[in-house]
């Protein structure tokens, strides 16, 4: 017979304390649940961020070659370090009004290339014959073709950017897939034969740089994400291709991980809070149970159980509870995570990550929390004096009680001194409750501080904004003669019922030469140091500035503004230097320099023309009236000329002139942006009118409304609000559990004392009142602490947190006010319920109970 | 005769000033191996304190206790615990059985805590002697007071300690059962040559010991050999 005393004791005493174990297990479940949820969220966030970058870059292979020959690609494919090589040949670019706003790349690709480009047909297959094509749903929808294999597809396209006439080809749809919304381009897969023909047929009289048909591309998948450049260079060296240009997928950049961990900062903070909350309750429960069992431990010690063995006993109990609580917490936490992930991560198709790290990490964190919580109680159990076992009842406690009572003390005073008997427990419970309630107040106040009006003011200047379709067309470039905002639409808007204000924005690109003063300004602002810092993460910007300084000329965007657009931008808060005078400006002799992303500072040198300077724009000189900051609503947008022109990366100065002046100078330009306000009562009518227009003209209007922006924000911010509330509510729940548990145990453990009181004449109602008073004392101390700490946290912490940004701070403790009656109710209910349970046993039974 | 316990100048004071309580006030004592010694005194005379000092459960304010060759004051708390389970058997007024363990498990508990194998043959001998053979699988809660105290005696004997300390072992028992228990203690003392020190306030019970030590106000009054 192999009798292992501690193990057996562990098992048998565990069964004895069902109620206590239940509470502890519940606390462990809640702690694990919160850890797991936070882990799921942070892991999903990382996974999603990387997935997003893959989708934005358009492929998930490590390396891409923009220009390579087939032989070179084959050589790389044959190298043992290359896992997979996918190849593609460009045939041309899709054209036509229907495809506006989407780049459609007509290409041949092998299965590998398509698969790694998020463009492998899910229905049907890749094209095989020259008249077959595979498209994504985005292009199909733009062309108005049903999602069905065998449909006829007519496509306008060019093999050369510079090509005047477009080619028209007819295909049969052989496959399609869900398009990649994160990328600006869609792939249109055609057969190898089609691509080869396109390359052979193209007109080679124009500039070689605009020809795209026949460009051979490749993507290389490696076995590992580490040291991608090193591995690739070695492959190129081994295959004799050293110097061949390639790009490493941005998604594999080490910066991605850093970004992910920054995004996860609130999660780490949450984990610390969870740890504290978990510690407060688990520590309290074990502390209470050790105190209750102290005689038992004393007895064991007398019989020869060492401190080590006693600790082992306690840790054994904790371990058993972990075995019960942690798996349940993992499961529930993962489920909660699955619910929260789509709310937290807004992107389409965000799913809860299922990596083992989540479960191992959460389990480990929870176990460590329990372990740390047990340390002090275990030490207490280990240090128990054997004399403890010989003490048959705790006379000392009672003694202190009588000393504290003043002569005529009633029940409330007795209750108050009872609370002081176990100060450590009282403090722990109050901390626990205060933590949860304070967090709740903080999250609420922080969310309540958000000011939608301030937010919208930054993003919108009117109820409605319609952009020209190519305004954000960074690849092909902005078309200043586009027809989105045509006379028909403008007439409809201007006649719309309830129109309150309207404003136009036109834009024109040109070239300006930089005066000595302007160059000095630029150099004073962009010092070597600033440029070096900038170049460290993006060399394009500093390069273009240097180029402008060297050549003493830069690009210029001239905006023509009127109406509410002009009024909004020239408002005092946007003015960095000079003074705006509407009447003088309207004369047409002035311009305003605009678009500087700098903070308003007195005496600062701004990197543009100085106020009062003359600036020559296409032969005419204007005086600079003022300098404005950057107001994205006006200045955001693509430059004219597509990627190949290099304009998008050039350094530009920006100027504003009155629309009237602008229109006389460049009468051919069409409006770029239209802003208008409508009376609230007519908002819906106007929206309907625009929808109707959009349907009739078969053109999707690039429309933004205040309402849609507000809705978008609410959608996006729901995540952090939900997260914060879930965490603080669970922590508050833990606090309540701690409170209830402490109340219950302090009553149950004093059964004998109560019986004694009754035996000397305390009536049942008096006893019940005593217990209720104790509960109320607990509650009001907690409430006082919580109100004080929350007031400080909200008044100082939240106020500082929401400083700046789109917020208006309001002092509020609403969640606390709502919780106050609840807490008081608990304070009354718990003692009362416990008392009713006590009543079931007879006085003598309770007096005799050990 | 060999002396197994030697206490010298034992003092235990509680409190301070006017509230000073001299629980033990200079006790010198020697206990011989194999003898059944009774310590008798009134309530509050210091007899329990003395016993706790002898068992290393409590630390004296002054003086020393030596069991065999071991000076108790020189042990750390952890060492004292281990020393106790090897060398000292306790029998308490309230039995101090562990309610979740069976009779058999209770008996072997201190031995197994020490990581030793219980001497089955020896323990069964004790069990037979104490008449517990049919109760080995019962839990203490199902036994009468007398039976529980017999289990406690068996437990104290099982580890073959140098000395057994019994604190009012019959305090909770009626007179017939008390007689039984004292009889058993006496028999085991004789049969296993076990040194036993027992506290009691009952002179009739004390009279059955080999030697009676009377203690009053923390001091030993007499220590006469009882007539055999």
Short account of what is shown:
The complex is a heterodimer of chains A (850) and B (228). By secondary structure, chain A is an alpha+beta fold. Chain A has four domains: 1-55 and 253-388, no CATH class; 61-248, no CATH class; 393-461 and 703-850, no CATH class; 469-701, no CATH class.
Which SSEs are present, and which pair or pack?
The complex is a heterodimer of chains A (850) and B (228).
Chain A: H1 5-16, H2 18-57, E1 63-65, H3 70-78, E2 82-95, E3 103-109, H4 111-116, E4 123-124, E5 132-136, H5 137-143, E6 152-158, E7 167-177, E8 185-190, H6 192-201, E9 216-222, H7 228-238, E10 247-248, H8 254-263, H9 265-292, H10 294-302, H11 307-344, H12 356-382, H13 387-390, H14 395-404, H15 411-420, H16 423-448, H17 452-459, E11 464-467, H18 487-494, E12 499-513, H19 516-525, H20 528-537, H21 540-551, E13 553-561, H22 563-569, E14 575-578, H23 582-586, E15 590-596, E16 614-617, E17 620-629, H24 632-635, E18 652-658, H25 659-665, E19 673-678, H26 683-697, E20 703-705, H27 706-748, H28 751-759, H29 764-801, H30 814-838, H31 843-848
Chain B: E1 3-14, E2 21-32, E3 36-40, H1 47-54, E4 62-67, E5 70-71, H2 77-87, E6 88-91, H3 103-113, H4 120-130, H5 145-158, E7 163-167, H6 175-191, E8 196-200, H7 203-206, E9 211-216, E10 219-225
Parallel strand pairs in B: 3-8, 3-9, 6-7, 7-8
Antiparallel strand pairs in B: 1-2, 1-4, 4-5, 9-10
Helix pairs in contact in B: 3-5, 4-5, 5-6
């Amino acid at each position: 017979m192999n009798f292992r005393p501690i193990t057996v004791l562990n098992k048998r005493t565990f069964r004895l304390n069902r109620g206590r174990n239940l509470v502890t297990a519940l606390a462990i479940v809640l702690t694990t649940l919160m850890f797991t949820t936070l882990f799921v969220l942070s892991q999903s966030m990382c996974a999603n961020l990387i997935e997003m970058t893959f989708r934005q870059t358009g492929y998930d292979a490590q390396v891409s070659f923009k220009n390579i020959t087939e032989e070179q690609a084959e050589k790389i494919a044959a190298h043992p370090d290359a896992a997979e090589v996918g190849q593609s040949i460009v045939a041309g670019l899709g054209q036509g009004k229907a495809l506006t706003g989407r780049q459609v790349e007509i290409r041949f690709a092998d299965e590998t290339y398509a698969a790694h480009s998020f463009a492998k047909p899910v229905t049907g297959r890749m094209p095989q014959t020259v008249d077959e094509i595979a498209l994504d749903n985005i292009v199909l929808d733009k062309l108005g073709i049903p999602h069905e294999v065998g449909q006829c597809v007519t496509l306008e396209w060019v093999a050369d950017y510079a090509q005047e006439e477009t080619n028209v080809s007819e295909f049969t749809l052989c496959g399609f897939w869900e398009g990649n919304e994160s990328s600006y381009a869609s792939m249109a897969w055609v057969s190898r034969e089609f691509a080869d023909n396109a390359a052979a047929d193209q007109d080679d009289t124009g500039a070689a740089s605009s020809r795209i048909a026949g460009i051979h591309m490749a993507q290389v998948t490696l076995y590992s994400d580490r040291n991608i450049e090193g591995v690739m260079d070695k492959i190129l060296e081994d295959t004799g291709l050293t110097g061949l240009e390639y790009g490493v997928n941005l998604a594999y950049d080490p910066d991605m991980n850093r970004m992910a961990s920054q995004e996860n900062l609130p999660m780490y903070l949450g984990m610390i809070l969870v740890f504290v909350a978990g510690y407060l309750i688990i520590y309290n429960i074990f502390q209470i149970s050790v105190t209750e069992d102290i005689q038992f431990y004393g007895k064991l010690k007398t019989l020869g159980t060492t401190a080590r063995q006693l600790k082992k006993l306690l840790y054994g109990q904790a371990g058993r509870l972990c075995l019960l609580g942690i798996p349940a917490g993992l499961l529930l936490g993962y489920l909660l995570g699955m619910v929260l992930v789509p709310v937290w991560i807004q992107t389409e198709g965000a799913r809860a990550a299922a990596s083992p790290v989540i479960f191992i990490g959460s389990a480990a964190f929870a176990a460590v929390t329990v372990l740390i919580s047990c340390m002090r109680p275990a030490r207490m159990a280990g240090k128990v004096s054997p004399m403890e076992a010989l003490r048959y009842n705790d006379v000392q406690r009672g003694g202190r009680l009588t000393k504290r009572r003043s002569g005529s003390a009633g029940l409330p005073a007795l209750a108050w001194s009872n609370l002081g008997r176990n100060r450590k427990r009282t403090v722990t419970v109050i901390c626990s409750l205060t933590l949860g309630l304070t967090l709740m107040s903080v999250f609420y106040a922080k969310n309540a501080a958000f000011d939608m009006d301030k937010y919208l003011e930054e993003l919108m200047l009117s109820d409605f904004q319609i952009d020209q379709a190519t305004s954000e067309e960074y690849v092909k470039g902005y078309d200043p003669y586009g027809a989105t905002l045509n006379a028909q639409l403008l007439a409809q808007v201007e006649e719309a019922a309830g129109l309150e204000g309207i404003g136009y924005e036109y834009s024109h690109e040109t070239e300006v030469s930089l005066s000595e003063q302007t160059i000095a300004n630029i150099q004073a602002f962009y010092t070597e140091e600033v440029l070096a810092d900038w170049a460290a993460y993006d060399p394009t910007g500093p390069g273009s500035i240097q180029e402008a300084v060297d050549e003493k000329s830069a690009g210029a965007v001239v905006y023509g503004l009127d109406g509410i657009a002009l009024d909004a931008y020239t408002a005092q808060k946007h003015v960095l230097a000079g003074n705006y005078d509407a009447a003088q400006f309207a004369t047409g002799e002035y311009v305003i320099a605009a678009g500087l992303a700098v903070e308003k500072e007195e005496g600062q040198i701004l990197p543009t023309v100085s106020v009062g300077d003359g600036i020559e724009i296409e032969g005419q000189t204007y005086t600079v009236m003022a300098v404005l900051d950057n107001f994205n609503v006006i200045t955001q947008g693509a430059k004219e000329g597509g990627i190949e022109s290099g304009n998008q990366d050039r350094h530009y100065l920006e100027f504003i002139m009155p629309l009237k002046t602008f229109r006389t100078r460049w009468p051919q330009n069409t409006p770029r942006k239209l802003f208008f306000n409508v009376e609230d009562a007519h908002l819906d009518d106007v929206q309907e009118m625009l929808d109707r227009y959009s349907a009739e003209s078969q053109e999707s209007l690039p429309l933004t409304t205040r309402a849609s922006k507000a809705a978008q924000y609410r959608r996006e911010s729901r995540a952090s609000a939900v997260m914060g509330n879930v965490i603080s509510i669970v922590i508050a729940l833990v606090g309540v559990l701690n409170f209830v548990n402490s109340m219950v145990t302090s009553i149950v453990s004093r059964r004998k004392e109560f019986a004694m009181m009754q035996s000397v004449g305390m009536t049942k109602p008096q006893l019940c009142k005593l217990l209720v008073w104790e509960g109320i004392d607990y509650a009001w101390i907690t409430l006082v602490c919580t109100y004080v700490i929350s007031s400080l946290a909200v008044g100082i912490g939240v106020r500082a947190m929401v400083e700046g940004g789109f917020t208006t701070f309001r002092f509020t403790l609403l969640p606390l006010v709502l919780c106050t009656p609840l807490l008081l109710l608990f304070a009354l209910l718990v003692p009362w319920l416990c008392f009713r349970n006590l009543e079931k046993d007879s006085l003598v039974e309770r007096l005799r109970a050990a | 005769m060999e002396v197994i316990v030697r206490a010298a100048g034992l003092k235990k004071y509680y409190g301070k000033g006017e509230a000073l309580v001299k629980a033990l006030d200079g006790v010198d004592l020697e206990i011989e191996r194999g003898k059944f010694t009774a310590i008798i005194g009134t309530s509050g005379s210091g007899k329990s304190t003395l016993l706790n000092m002898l068992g290393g459960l409590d630390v004296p304010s002054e003086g020393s206790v030596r069991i065999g060759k071991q000076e108790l004051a020189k042990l750390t708390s952890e060492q004292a615990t281990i020393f106790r389970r090897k060398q000292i058997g306790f029998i308490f007024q309230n039995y101090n059985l562990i309610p979740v363990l069976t009779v058999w498990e209770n008996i072997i508990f201190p031995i197994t805590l020490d990581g030793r194998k219980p001497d089955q043959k020896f323990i069964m001998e004790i069990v037979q002697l104490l008449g517990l053979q049919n109760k080995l699988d019962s839990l203490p809660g199902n036994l009468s007071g007398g039976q529980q105290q017999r289990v406690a005696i068996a437990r104290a004997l099982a580890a073959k300690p140098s000395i057994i300390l019994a604190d009012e072992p019959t305090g909770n028992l009626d007179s017939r059962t008390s007689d039984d228990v004292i009889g058993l203690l006496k028999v085991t003392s004789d049969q296993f040559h076990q040194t036993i020190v027992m506290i009691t306030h009952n002179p009739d019970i004390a009279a059955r010991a080999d030697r009676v030590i009377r203690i009053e106000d923390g001091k030993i009054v007499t220590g006469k050999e009882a007539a055999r």
